[in-house]
Amino acid sequence: LSSAKAPKYTYAKLDSLKAGSVVNVYGVVVFFKQPFKSRGTDFCSSLKITDHSNEKIGCTIFCEKLEDHPKIFRNGDIVRMHRVKAQVFNKSITLVNTFGFSVVTFDGVKGAPVEPRTSSRSFHFDPDDQRTVEELRSWAASQALFASVTSTVPLSAVQPKAYFDLTCQLLAKAPVDTTCTLLRVWDGTRCPHTLLKVIVEPHVTEGQLSFSKERENLIADVLVYDNHVEVARKLKPGVFLRIYNLRAIAGSSTVPGLTRSQLQVDHLAFHLHGGTSYGRGIGILPDNKKNVICSSAAAEGWMFNDEHFSSVGWCLCSERSCGHDMQKVTLSEVKRSGLGRVHHVRAQLKAYEPHRLHEALKLYCSKSLTVYLLTQLMFEGKTKDVILLMGNNPQLLESIKAKNISKEISRLWSRNPSIIKSTKTPISWYLTGSTLEEMCQLMASYQNIIPVRASGGHLSLFDLSAPFLFRGRKRYYGSEINLTH
DNA sequence: GTTTAGGTTTAG
């Protein structure tokens, strides 16, 4: 016994499962449902997995406690299950958990850190597991495993009539009747459609009762029905959710318990219908998923202007979890430490720019997950610190800052109002006074050209009717672009 | 020593 080896698990390929055997398996998730209450004593998770063998195997997991269920957030996630029993149902092999069952889940994204998701206090994990996860990720990336399933869509891209998954934060909730609950959520993006607003009694609302008009425009009212009401009852405002198989419906809607006059009809409504078909359900995201919302909010140029800084709003943007412990420092310490460091601060908002989003140029670098907001102040030369920053790309930031662009533009512009040359920064500049033909000639030398004009001795961006950026042959309208290095 | 569900859309 003293020489007993550490336990070594062996994993069955999914095309070699024999009825009645108890096995350990690895698989890529191609379908899943959030755990739902069964008619028996347990919650039930339903999932389908596959592996290199291309065999797709349905799995049914019964556990009394939700935390013992597989922590699956999306198709492509990788699960490792210990002690599942193969049995035949409808002439196919399925896997059901059996005594001593445990499950660990991993993100399926190639190159992402291999971080086990489990509530088990101790679990086996060795270099072979690391390798297996990475192999499954690579294999899955080369396959079209779930091309037709619904995908996570931000509110800004929601299509009427479509089913989709929504990643969002719960701001408030209220019961509508015994079969329907209202969830007020946002994801930091603005839906182009007018949103249905459900009016409920204030005294039954949990969470913030009212929001500023600006924020209200970002909030989607989601009605969840039947079996989802029980799940919704346990949710606390502030929690981050993924709502699966949500349906956006345009046109008149009626809601039980409410008269039609309580609804603004003909608006886009969000319904989570009863049942669990197509994975319909509500999943609670772990803290490290908050970044998803923070970065989408930032990429959208999300700003809020509430008189009362709510704890929920605060949470959305300030409590970024960076996956490491870091002490909070004061703003003066940040200033002293110079460029290129990452800090945690907690501060009170005193003022913000821009008040109108089209006044800002947003540069979003998907590689470094960094958002740069170049504000109107920069063009007017009113400030030295022209860039409001998030993220961690000191090189790019420094190159912009070191150039002191507004000063440089003003200087060069006074000498030669036609062209300003700036080769080091990721942006080149084009000024008023040139024709389109001249600008097209400049395209050969400069990758990115932002048209600006002079007014009142200052430079300013054109309004939204003009392209804000010329990149090669492409013209970008609006105010956003992905920078590629 | 093993009931529950067994993917496949509400119809508000």
UniProtKB/TrEMBL annotation:
CC terms in the record's Gene Ontology section: nuclear telomere cap complex; nucleoplasm
InterPro entries: NA-bd_OB-fold, POT1, POT1_C_insert, POT1PC, Telomer_end-bd_POT1/Cdc13
Subcellular location: Chromosome, Telomere; Nucleus
One of the record's GO molecular function terms: G-rich strand telomeric DNA binding
Keyword field contains Magnesium: no
Swiss-Prot/TrEMBL keywords: Chromosome, DNA-binding, Nucleus, Telomere
A Gene Ontology BP annotation from the UniProt entry: telomere capping
Location of the Telomeric single stranded DNA binding POT1/Cdc13 domain: 11-141
Keyword DNA-binding recorded: yes
Lineage: superkingdom: Eukaryota
SMART domains registered for this protein in UniProt: Telo_bind
Pfam families according to UniProt: POT1, POT1_C_insert, POT1PC
Family of the protein in this entry: Belongs to the telombin family.
Protein name: Protection of telomeres protein 1
